[in-house]
Amino acid sequence: MSDLNEELSKALKDTEEVAAPAREASLETLPKAKKKTNLGLLAGLLAVAAGVVALFLVGFKEAAIYAMPTDEVVAKAETLKGKRLRVDGLLVPGTLKEVKSCEYHFTMQKNDKELPVRYAKCVLPDTFRDRPEGGVEVTVEGELTKGQTSFEANLVMAKCASKYDPSTHEMVMPDGTRTKAENVPASMKSGQ
User: Within 13 Å of residue 41, how many CA atoms lie on the same side as its CB?
Assistant: First the structure.
């Protein structure tokens, strides 16, 4: 039995002598390998961050829309040509015309500056109607055409010019006149 103990202790001693230099060598190389991994990870993260920033700068520049009133667009027309714009103003009464099927022309104004608009789509918003008394607020999106001072709209939005008074079931127009609202359900009429 003592031979067995001696053999085990000798084998253990031999294993420790062989493993010690290998362990020391791996401990020396561990920080170097970790440093290389950290530098690689940092370089990769910087490359991804630079790519995301570049994507935002390039991608959002194309999608940017400048919002301006009609008078500013007319004043800065030369510098704004080809840029996507959102223009606010009032519809000039009597200018809304359907030139041909699915193409409308009208004029917007603000502070005595007018901008002709071309809208080549079949459907106009329900609230976009030419009223002789005026006061129809309109917002268009699109761009100024090159070589001309007209606006190519791809979206038209109109604000309702009248206000509904539920107590009298009348529409109050921008000029202050009142008209009876049509098609009011019986359940909404007062006294019922």
Answer: 6
**DSSP strand pairing (113-119 vs 137-144):** unpaired
**Closest by alpha carbon to 179, among 167, 190, 166, 169?**
169
Residues 90, 170: Cα–Cα separation, whole Å: 24
Task: Kindly report the CATH number assigned to the domain that includes residue 139.
Answer: 2.40.50.140
| Domain limits for position 43 | 1-64
Give the tens place of pLDDT for each residue, 58-79.
766 555 677 888 888 888 888 8
Read off the tokens for 5.
Answer: 């103990």
Domain count, the chain: 3
Global pTM? 0.54
Per-residue model confidence as pLDDT tens digits over 91-127:
888 888 888 888 899 999 999 888 999 998 888 887 7
Instruction: Give yes or no: residues 141 and 177 share one domain.
Output: no
Collapsing DSSP to helix, strand or coil, 63 comes out as helix
